[in-house]
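== Folding task for one protein ==

=== Format: two labelled lines per protein ===

==== Paired sequence and structure tokens ====
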Amino acid sequence: MKPSDLTKIRTLSSPTVHPDGRDVVFVVSRPDVEDNRYRTSLWRLDLSTDDARPTRLTSSTRDSAPAYSPDGTQLAFLRAGDDGPPQLHVMPADGGDARRLTDQPLGVGSVSWSPEGTQLVYAARIPEQGRYGTDDAVKPDQEAPRLIEHSTYLADGLGYVLDRPSKLFLLDLADLPDPDGPDADELPPSTQLTSGRGDDSAPVFLHAGTRIAFVASRDRRGAWTPDTLVSDVCSVDLRGKGFRRHTDRTGSVGSVHVGPDGTAVYGAADLGSSKQDFVARNAVLRRLDGPGVALTDAETDHLACAPVIGGDGAVVAAFEVRGDTVVRDLTADRVLLEGHVGVTALAAGGDVVVAVAGTREAYSELFVGRSGETLTQRTDFARHLTDTAAPIETEELDATSGDGYPVHGWLVRPTTKPRRKAGHPVILLIHGGPYAQYSGNLFDEAQVLAGAGYAVVMGNPRGGSGYGAAHGRAVKEAIGTVDVADLTALLDHALTLPGLDGSRLGVMGGSYGGLMTTWLVGHTDRFTAAISERAVNAWDSFAGTSDIGWFFADEYAGAFQHEQSPLTWADRITTPTLVIHSERDFRCPLEQGQRLFARLRKNGVPSKLLVFPGEGHELSRSGQPRHRLQRFEHILDWWGDHLR
């Protein structure tokens, strides 16, 4: 795989299954480097036959988030114009013209149908007057100053949030104008259900459609509670009145899910006595109106994506396990999908369960099963890439850390002959999070590096997910200890294999992986060169500039923030280092990279700073296609200069 092959990757998302299980509609996205945007459209797969091929349903190129109505006759989805925000649309399920239903200035977020299919509830951010284009006479740099009183005022990928809170709206399809009448182009009215400060998100109809449930940080009277990780399941009636809080103000709720039979479940992570201890705290699924019995285990079950509820009320969820994902029917205690798959989305309808998952050979495919059957792959979107860039196989690695702890990972070895007798140069790739996991499945980062002739070692040291919560919590107030030992053990084990040149070693990672990269080159000179990307390098300024800094540093580094900051040890660095950062990264702000680069330059270390304008923390995954391509080119240039 080469950097230019990014355009051949097809990513699937947001599946929605017809209520009788006859088909599934989903989103297909592809990067368009020439126009520098992502092309997204809705596709359909007929499930009535085993040999059906997916067909494109919409011709627009910015369609997303499809959702079947409960009777299966209509399809709601979001559509954006070339430059405008996404607006809610609805179309006949069998095809036809789509009707726009909203004109929200900042666009529409999540959408949900009422049980009767006569109403829709959606979330939308409401801008403060005079900001975000609400006044044509006021340009962005002419807006009034922001008087900030709370710590939670920024969000990566969005920017300032307090002056554009997310609120809920109800739309009645009975108010749609006659499509053949004189008012056919008018939009139906939306009723705002919630107001005030703070975000209300993820709305769904509850209690047979008589109430709207949502996630928010609010007290029992409904007042917003700022600067907290605690969030609850809340609800209002269809007039926006009668506020209720359904959960107990102790955890962090992600979302609420309601099945066709009214079964409701939610996932909440326990935050401990401080109500701020989020480190490796797995969300536990519970029934909202049941006895509160946990459906999942807080120690072993880390959700890979949102769960779903089938037509028979069965709760289906996907969990990270040793770099892969297992899909389980929690009601029947049955495994529906396992093996080398990485599930990113689930959907259910009738007796059908659908998963979107990557494999060793594909980035994103649909897996389908009926009535408790094992899910099987039903699409082949990988052909767009694999017809010209065959995936390089991964080799599983098992090593033992210095204290006897097992370390799991993978090696992606080039298929070409090494240029030197000693073997291929080696790059240690470190994941972010840290509570995340690498997989042996197809991964563009590893494939591009291996395709360029580098052997890639990547694994899941302590601190990551997929091996139990204790594994993830091992680095709490212990960064730079067991995680470094595990990474070192995995690399040392890989170097015992034939064809790898231990004299030419590179190390790179992003976010927490960037922290580890900076840490390693500050504590050893074994690496020939390094790339530290979007890193946390200093906890002191991270706590004052990052959108999550006000709690993240305290929980991960605690009283050891100085000792566990890579910048503290930066004067020891002699390894040539490329620092990559984005201008609008509010998760690990640009100053984190600038401070490292300044120290390296002061000390005469060969170094460069690569800064991407307009990008946030997710550059390598969802940044502008052109920037993603350019990023790969710069990375290969750096390794070419230092490892080849």
In short: The first helix runs from residue 383 to 386. Residues 177 and 609 are 56 Å apart (CA to CA). The chain has a mean pLDDT of 96.
